[in-house]
Task: inverse folding
């Protein structure tokens, strides 16, 4: 391969990554939908068990709808558990959601604070919104910085 061919191939690859980074720019509503699902999942623990199970089924459907929304909007769905610089953000948010979810249930069951899962769900929802936006920023930067 000649130097000019290699340079053209590298340029084409960088243009492709730039297009992918542009497509991965989600609107704020997408981050809000994700935050609502994750926060709602935690908050739903305040409800009676049969209602909680029904809400969890609705949230699972919501995840599917986000998948469809992303595929329709960009032609792709990017898995949050992908390897790369975004993985620490993913696992940090998972730790936050699980910790506050457990805290809410513990406060409800141990101390009778029925609204605790709702408060914890609000905290998780806010964290999920900002971490989703940060995840996107890190992902797009990673695409642009690849050699």
Result:
């Amino acid at each position: 391969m000649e130097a000019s061919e290699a340079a053209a191939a590298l340029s084409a690859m960088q243009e492709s990554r730039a297009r992918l980074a542009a497509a991965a720019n989600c609107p704020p509503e997408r981050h809000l939908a994700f935050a609502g699902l994750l926060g709602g999942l935690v908050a739903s623990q305040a409800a009676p068990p049969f209602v909680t199970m029904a809400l969890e089924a609705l949230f699972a459907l919501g995840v599917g709808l986000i998948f469809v929304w992303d595929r329709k909007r960009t032609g792709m769905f990017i898995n949050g558990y992908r390897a790369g610089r975004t993985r620490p953000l993913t696992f940090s948010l998972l730790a936050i959601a699980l910790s506050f979810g457990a805290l809410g249930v513990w406060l409800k069951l141990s101390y009778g604070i029925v609204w605790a899962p709702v408060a914890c769900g609000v905290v998780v929802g806010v964290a999920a919104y900002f971490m989703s936006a940060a995840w996107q920023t890190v992902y797009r930067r990673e695409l642009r910085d690849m050699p």
Observations:
- Residues 20 and 143 are 8 Å apart (CA to CA).
- The helical segments are 3-23, 28-43, 49-74, 87-111, 116-145.
